[in-house]
Amino acid sequence: GEVIFTVKVEGGGVLRAEGSDLRMTHRLTLYEALTGAIVEAEMPDGRRLHVAVEEVVHPGFVKVVKGEGLRRDADSAARGDLLISFDIKFPARLSGIQRELLDVALRLPADLEQPASLQRQLLHAAIHLPPNLAKTEQDKVHAVTQLLVRRDEPPPPE
Fold first, then answer.
1. What global pTM score does this model have?
2. Which InterPro entries match (predicted)?
């Protein structure tokens, strides 16, 4: 049979050799799993790889980095792969506003996909408001939010 050994590298990362492949597990926050992350892998030869994970990471997802494993045999330049599995850390709880924002983000109405959508422009502006907004500007933003009409409400009288 094959010999499997584990290499513990200085940075605390653990690589497991499986044949000519190297396998590791990296912990991600839920945010990173959904939006992307850079995984640093310290290799047995001392190199540090910075692997961009741009895919949405789901349970069971494995990022394959071709040619970053061990040599297949002493006479060959061919190498195995680096296989990165993920452990996704979910938050213990969500606040009310976090739930609302997730609802908007994950069940996005079709009209918000359009760049010219007024709702999209307002949402974008709200997300990017500076924290030190002047009181007069805060009042203007508040006035605009009071003008918005919900779909289930009758329009205001003219």
1. 0.68
2. DnaJ_C (IPR002939), DnaJ_subfamily_B (IPR051339), HSP40/DnaJ_pept-bd (IPR008971)
Residues 8 and 82 in one domain: yes
10-residue block means of pLDDT along the chain (158 residues)?
57 77 96 95 91 96 96 85 97 92 79 78 78 84 68 60
Tokens of 77: 């330049």
Of 79, 80, 26, 78, the C-alpha closest to 57 is 26
Within 10 angstroms of residue 89's Cβ, the number of other Cβ atoms is 13
In a domain, 9, yes or no: yes
Give the full edge-to-edge strand order of the sheet including 14-18.
4-8, 14-18, 21-29, 82-89, 62-65
Residues in the chain: 158
Query: What is the domain range of residue 143?
Result: 114-151
In the three-class reduction of DSSP (H, G, I as helix; E, B as strand; rest coil), residue 48 is classed as: strand
Alpha helices in the chain (DSSP H): 30-35, 96-106, 118-127, 135-147
- What is the C-alpha to C-alpha distance for residues 54 and 63, in angstroms, rounded to an integer? 10
Tell me how many domains the chain contains: 2
Q: Are residues 66 and 143 in the same domain?
A: no
